Amino acid sequence: MSSPGDDSRSKRYDRQIRIWGAEGQSRLEAARVLLLNCGPTGSETLKNLVLGGIAAFTVVDAARVSARDLGNNFFVAPESLGEPRAKVVTALLKEMNECVAGSYVETPPEALVEADPGFVDRFDLVVATQMTEPHLLHLESLCRSKGVKLLAVRSYGLAGYMRASMPEHTVIESKPDTQVDDLRLTRPWPALREFAASFNIEALDDGAHKHVPYVVLIQQALESWRRERGGAPPSTAAERAEFKRRLAGMRRVGPEGVPMEEENVDEALKAAFHAWTQPSIPPEVRRVLEDERASPAAADAHTPGDDFWLLAAALRAFVANEGGGCLPLEGSIPDMHATTDLYLRLQRVYRAEAEAHAAAVEAHAARMLAAAGRPGGGVAAGAARHFCRNARNLRVVRYRTLAEEVAPESARGEALAEALGEEGTAANASLYVLLRAADRFHSTHGSFPGVLEGEVEADMAALKGLAQQVVAEVGASGAAAADDYACEMCRLGAAELHVVAAVMGGMAAQEAIKLITRQFVPFGGTLIYNAITSTTSVLDL
């Protein structure tokens, strides 16, 4: 029986629970987030996470509310001028969701990370905003050593930057936009064959005939076809057309010779491709199964609550044995025209087979753990069933370190040169180069290009030179950043515009939720947002 608190929670988060489910929401409600710098970019990012219902957040920022903040940050007020920005932003964010705990530390993020490296241990995700490359490199090294996810976000004039960093991110529920129903009509199991054969379709009256599930119509037509064709399903275009005519011939004809309207036959014709579509393993999933971590050795590294690689190894064993080269059955069926009783009976047939497959995968996992001398360290209850139900959706995203991206010896210069040379990505790749050049300018001059009045022209020339230096160092021969974007970056003087910060905050919160819930697939490169052209590019560098 649900408690009043559960009912209140469901009402509060109803729309988002429909997207990522109760399990995703539970992960979100357990998440602890650290925000470094709470200007508009950080505040907008955290706002979306607070509204989503994270467990707690901590803001680290040393600035005091200034007139500039009043112009670009909705989470400060005129009466808070001169007060600690972290304190003001934290108070206003807490008002947005009383279920979320919030705290703040009034100190420069860079100093805190340097003085207390263990501080990040308390968090599941660090959102670092408006940090320059040298500080990000240090922070990334620290977060990776602690096993904490890092999301770097930045708004700079009319440009935005975002990059996640962690060794790898595993996804069970990637939730693709479209997916074919897993009906397995070309490889039916005994219970499905028996269910389909139990219908004497010719003997049914018209009322009962129009409520036969289309799965049964296709299965019976396919069994008949195979008996006539030596067991082979329709393969050529001509055979498939003939098979569909056979299905259409199952439609009843009225007294005057007019074909009757039967939705189940219409559904069977639309789903006829199931009669010749063999179950297959998507390329992304095959890469997971062939990964060196998806082996019995996964049992040695298994930790309670993190079953991905152990279950991937067990799934690999299932595919090689009981599955006969196929993934486990998902166990769900689509809506179809049928009586409630027939639909539920068919649903039970699919669910029973899916449960058997999940049990086999769980047994493989148990054997691997036992072989590793850890017989008591089984997978979490229901984990194998959940894993098998989403077996077609498994994904693994691996991230290069920021150090690998920027170091000349490991940078992907050819990829950058290609991005700078292609019309669709040239502008955004130029912004990427110029952001890195701006950080170099800051390291040398102590300010960003264009900030000091009267220095814009000189800063512009220096920025262009530094951009050429960045391109040359990474080996992007023959490429160059666009000069007009260098002018634009100097003209805006590193301003953190709210219109850009709001967009970056929305995208950053979306990526953060992907990382926290382990649903949907986060991008694996460096995202650049161009507010001039309203475009984004993900650069694989």
Automatic annotation (TrEMBL):
Pfam family, one: ThiF
GO terms assigned for molecular function: NEDD8 activating enzyme activity
One Gene Ontology biological process: protein neddylation
Pathway: Protein modification; protein neddylation
Domain THIF-type NAD/FAD binding fold: 13-534
InterPro entries: APP-BP1 (IPR030667), ThiF/MoeB/HesA (IPR045886), ThiF_NAD_FAD-bd (IPR000594), Ubiquitin-activating_enz (IPR035985)
GO CC annotation, single: cytoplasm
Keyword set, alphabetical order: Ubl conjugation pathway
Family from the record: Belongs to the ubiquitin-activating E1 family. ULA1 subfamily.
Function noted in UniProt: Regulatory subunit of the dimeric E1 enzyme. E1 activates RUB1/NEDD8 by first adenylating its C-terminal glycine residue with ATP, thereafter linking this residue to the side chain of the catalytic cysteine, yielding a RUB1-ECR1 thioester and free AMP. E1 finally transfers RUB1 to the catalytic cysteine of RCE1.
Protein name (record): NEDD8-activating enzyme E1 regulatory subunit
Lineage: Eukaryota, Viridiplantae, Chlorophyta, core chlorophytes, Chlorophyceae
